[in-house]
Amino acid sequence: MVVVILGRELLVTSIRGLAEKSGIAFGADQWGKIKMVLQSITILVIITYVYFHEIFRQHFPDVLSSYDRWAGTFRDGMIWVMLVATVASAWGYLRRSTGLMQSDDR
To answer: Range of 60's domain?
Structure first.
C-alpha cells in the first residue's frame, strides 16, 4: 500500500516537473482530486477505527469482536477503494504525459 501511494506521488511529481519545465501546464485531473479526497477520508477512517478499538477493548470487551468485524471490514474496504483510485490516477497521468510527449516530438 505504501509503495503504491509513494510511487504514484513520485511519478506524478516527476512528470509534472518535466512538463512544467517545458512550459506545459500539467495540473491535477479529476482522478487526482478523487484520490486526494479518498486518501483523506481513509486516513480519518483508520484513525477513528484505532481510537474506538482501544475504547471497546478497555470498556466493552464483550462487543469488541463485533466491532472488529464490521469496522475492520469498512476500514479495509476504504483502503482498497483508495488504492484503486490511486492506481487509476497514476494511469491517467501516465496517459496524459504520453500524449504530451508524443505531441511534443512532432
So the answer is: 32-105
Alpha helices by DSSP H, listed for the chain, are 2-21, 30-59, 64-105
Burial class (CB in 10 A: 0-12, 13-18, 19+), 92: middle
Reported as a single tens digit per residue, the pLDDT across 9-28 is 999 999 888 888 888 888 88
Locate 97 and state its grid cell: 504525459
- Gap between the Cα atoms of 68 and 62, Å rounded: 11
Residues in CB range of 90: below 8 A, 6 or more apart: 7, 8, 11, 12
Q: How many independent structural domains does the chain possess? A: 1
Mean pLDDT over the full length of the chain:
89
- If you search the block for the grid coordinates 475504547, which residue do you land on? 55
State the pTM of this model.
0.82
